[in-house]
Amino acid sequence: MDPIPDAIEHPPTAGTVDPTDLAAQLPSLLPPGWHVVDVPGVERPVVVGPGGVLVLVARHHTSLPIGLDDPSPWPDRRHRMSTPQVTAELTSQLLAARSGLRLRVRPLVVVDSIDALVLDRPDRVHVVHRDQLAWWLDHQPLELGASEVARVARSAHPAFDPPAV
For 19-66+80-156, which CATH class? Predict the structure, then answer.
């Protein structure tokens, strides 16, 4: 009888870009009115702007296909959350505690390759190419006013001084 083969070992960050890589590029990728905020306890870049608060999950061109496997017999998938959804929920709770605002942070997968294969995203997490990030953010429905954006940004960076609009 053959022994059970060892599981394939993957480094903890397999399939993702170092979050600091995307974070370092964000200031040049964001449209006016959007700001990067540092949320202690969240290892992913977080942005806030008129279209709300988003936690960004970077995916590299060498990643596996971008999607979710669903081996469960329940087609509605409400019994579980994807990693981006869990990260967004954690970020919502942390920012709400700091800012005093009820916030719904949304996850956004940012892909840095046109070769990436996007599969079904039953978790309703949007996927956008890095080059289209500014356009995508600019076309989000208005969720936060300038004062709310500043309040969220100040809760992460007390010295934040929003630019004059």
Answer: alpha beta
